[in-house]
Amino acid sequence: MSDNIVLVTEEFVRFYMSKYDCSHDWQHVQRVVRQALALANHEAQRRPIDILVVHLAALLHDVDDAKYRQSDDAAFSSKVFLLEAGLDSDRAELVCRVVDAVSFRKELLADEQDRMGMSDPDERQWRLGCAELACVQDADRLDAIGAFGVLRCAAFSGARNRTLHDPADSAIMDITYEQYVAQSGGTSGTAIAHFHEKLLKLASMMKTERGRQEAQRRHDYIVGFLKQIDEDDSGQSATEDSEEHEYDGDENEDSSDGSDGDSQGVSDEDDLDADSGSPEEAWNPVVTFAESRTTNSSSRRTGPASITSGHNRPPSNRYRYHHRLPGLKAMLFPKLCGVGRPADLLALEMTRFHPTD
Q1: How far is it, in rounded angstroms, from Cα 276 to Cα 272?
Q2: Of 57, 95, 204, 240, which residue is 20 to 30 A from 345 by alpha carbon distance?
Q3: Distance between CA 328 and CA 247 in Å, rounded?
Q4: CB-based contact 319:290 (threshold 8 Å)
């Protein structure tokens, strides 16, 4: 009987979640279910827990999510659905209670009410002690941090047309329930600010032992990610690596007369000359960005570093670069440089050649 209830619920949730963006899709639900069941099996070794309730609550935890609710949406009752699927009333009630309390938003509200002395003591005790809620809540929050957390935050921001990062935007470090609700339903704030307002706090909010252990690993990942964002945004990494690349303007200033062939590993006959070559070759430059290439046994870099691995890729015999910074000035400011045909001194020329056998 319980297997049939799970199958019916899975089919319903799979269909229902298809209207959400990929930050809250069926794949997210499946990850939460797997994690919640793993946490529940671990928790069952030390306290009573209803695995079926955990399974169903994990499946239904994002159905009728307030962030996606439209004014014309028909009301949905998880309890009615579960009762019609064949679940007994007590279990259906517990599933709905877990689903209603699982979100970060609801915990913000509950904490504010606790501080103001407005919360029901019995409700508070249930929230802190319910094993089923702890497992589903921890599982949902684990999927909000780590690598999937980064992807989901960017996906949700994209779906809401929210800015990814604005250095001038300050995160609301002690965000309130009302502020969080306003941001969730609109386009204010940024994706990176969301890390500071919510995601970096989740590891300290875990309620299961196994959840806390896994959360720390994923927390460390997003801390490293944010550090990389800061470095990339400030240009720190590029500045540190600039000495490794052969973009020395002074060196190229001396070689602008066409004698730079040896220093670049290219013969003089490869250079464009104002008095040679067809007009098409001189006036149809191709400027292409490519991955770094290793041109000789000393692994001397002649192009930008690979952004995917941070290391040079294997040697290539397809392309080579000519770096001519003086030519860039001539191309942009031909009159100042006294050059009649600026393309003759193009900044970056990619030369295609046939590999030798």
Answers
A1: 7
A2: 240
A3: 13
A4: yes
The separation between the first and the last C-alpha atoms of the chain, rounded to the nearest angstrom, is 70
- Amino acid making up residue 19: K
Please spell the DSSP secondary structure of 29-98, one letter per residue. Answer: HHHHHHHHHHHHHHHTTTS---HHHHHHHHHHTTTT-TTT--TTPPP--HHHHHHHHT--HHHHHHHHHH
One-character DSSP codes across 217-277:
HHHHHHHHHHHHHHHHHHTHHHHHHGGGS---HHHHHHTTTTT-HHHHT--GGGS--TTSS
Encoding tokens for residue 15?
Answer: 């269909």
The pLDDT of residue 235 is 80
pLDDT of residue 237: 54
CA distance 1 to 17: 24
What is the total residue count of the chain? 357
The pLDDT of residue 328 is: 42
pLDDT for 163: 93
Q: What number of CA atoms fall less than 13 Å from residue 234's CA on the CB side?
A: 9
CA-CA-CA-CA dihedral for 330, 332, 338, 339, to nearest 10: 60
Look-up: residue for tokens 């009159």? Answer: 335
Is there a contact between 13 and 29 (Cβ–Cβ < 8 Å)?
A: yes
Distance of CA 3 to the CA centre of its chain: 36
Residues 125, 131, 132, 135: is their CA dihedral positive or negative?
positive
Give the count of alpha carbons within 13 A of 91, CB side only.
Answer: 19
Q: What's the Rg (C-alpha) of the chain?
A: 30
Separation of alpha carbons 199 and 147, rounded Å: 12
Q: What is the pLDDT of residue 348?
A: 38
**Rounded to 5 degrees, what angle do the CA atoms 20, 26, 29 make?**
110
Give kind and range of the element (H or E) at residue 146. helix 146-159
Six-digit token string for 207 = 């309620």
